Amino acid sequence: MKSLRIVRYLMTGSAQAVMVVSLVLACISPALAQQATPVPEAPSTVQADYVEPSSMQALKSGQKIADLYTRNTTEDYVLQRLSQRTYWFQRQFYTTIFYVGDEGVLLFDPLRSRGEFIQKAIASVTELPVRSIVYTHNHADHIGDAGVFLQAASKAGIELQIVASEATASKMDYLGSELPKPTDVVTWPRGSFKFESLIVDMHGFERGAHTDDHAIWQLASEKIVHLPDFINPDQPPFWRFAGSENFVYYQDNLDQLAKLNWTYLSGGHGNVGSHADVEFYQRFLTDLRLAVGKARGEVEWGAGIDASRTNAHTPFLPAWLDAVAKKATDSLRPKYGKFYGFEAATPANAKMVAKMMHSYK
Ligand SMILES: [Zn+2]
Q1: pLDDT digits (tens, 9 = 90+) for 278-332
Q2: How far is the centre of ligand 1, averaged over its atoms, from the C-alpha of 131 (Å)?
Q3: Among 331, 333, 324, which Cα is nearest to 353's?
């Protein structure tokens, strides 16, 4: 009705009508913004079979959780059973997993600001207390709520076991971490520990892209790997390859993950992962490297810089990397532009690839 009225006024062409149109537009614009249809969920990168989350029913191979972006913005948390004893937890885009033993619970990554919700989720499937936690790597956003579990354990008269790799434990010392210290240290770069009858193998990256203490934690008999901040399942690579400190070792790390025997990947963010997600990343990286390589040949050195207006060589490399990254992103958009977060992540990722190609021959 309102839009019809606007059109009719516009057709009259009188100054008065234009004024009325402006007034009407000013009045209805905020209302229109409020009534905007929500942006639909991005399509799956791996043609997932989407299902409703369930803390009872384990996911089948190829299944993922439906409407995950919306759930993260509207629900307290998402809890999904992966196997008889292992559960996947996500709140506000951060993921961890826990394993329910016969006498207690083993929790990976006590996520910062999410401890109480993790406790609620655990209590919804078992009355057993958390007896062990694992620091997968020394990043506070993933392990920052260790204190919540330490406190709960001490209240229950339990001595909480805190497991970390040698690399993580020594890095925490080196940086003067304020978080509770690990009580049990796993040999770097390969080691394992036992929680009741479960064996957890740690495969450290001798040269890590994300950090120098990054590792794959494998619950061997469960066929589950937990590797936060590397692959965001059901999405193209997140900004700067999930906050990687370099791209130099990213491909090697991905190949190492691909070779292990597992069914489910818990990536710290994103949906529940499978080998299809690794394969999608392999294809995306191939296309990204080709696009960046081509753009490097096409973008001239000095692009975007007016050489007559600078007295420093400093802006040339950043401007060239920006231009190469933009060109590469433009060329990938027709194939990948519809996927989750593509526009926000890809220029930064292309820039990391361009910088690596610039530095290594
Ligand atoms: Zn991290």
Answers
A1: 999 999 999 999 999 999 999 999 998 999 999 999 999 999 999 999 999 999 9
A2: 24
A3: 324
DSSP alpha helix (H) spans, 156-274: 166-174, 240-243, 250-259
Instruction: Enumerate residues 6+ apart whose C-beta is below 8 A from 126.
Output: 100, 105
Q: At what angle do helices 275-298 and 250-259 cross, to 10 degrees?
A: 160
Count helices and strands in the chain by DSSP H and E runs? 12, 14
Long-range contact pairs involving 37-40 (C-beta distance under 8 Å, separation at least 24)? 38/70
pLDDT by residue (tens digit) across 64-89? 999 999 999 999 999 999 999 999 99
**135-168 burial string, b = 16+ CB within 10 Å, else e?**
bbbbbeebbbbbebbbebbeeeebebbbbbbbbb
How far is residue 268's CA from residue 52's CA, in Å, rounded to a whole number? Answer: 20
Enclosing H/E stretch for 165: strand 161-165
Instruction: Give the separation between CA 180 and CA 146, rounded to whole angstroms.
Output: 7
CA of 60 to the centre of ligand 1 (A): 28
How many Å apart are CA 86 and CA 64, to the nearest integer? 16
Mean pLDDT score across all residues of the chain: 92
Distance 270 CA to ligand 1 centre (A): 14
Q: How far is the CA of 34 from the centre of ligand 1 (A)?
A: 36
**How many Å lie between the centroid of ligand 1 and the Cα of residue 324?**
27
Whole-number Å distance between alpha carbons of 333 and 189:
38
Domains by residue range for the chain, with CATH: 2-34 (no CATH), 49-273 (3.60.15.10), 284-359 (no CATH)
Q: How far is the CA of 139 from the centre of ligand 1 (A)?
A: 5
Alpha-carbon span 32 to 46, nearest angstrom: 35
- Please identify every residue whose CB atom is under 5 Å from ligand 1, which is an ion: 139, 229
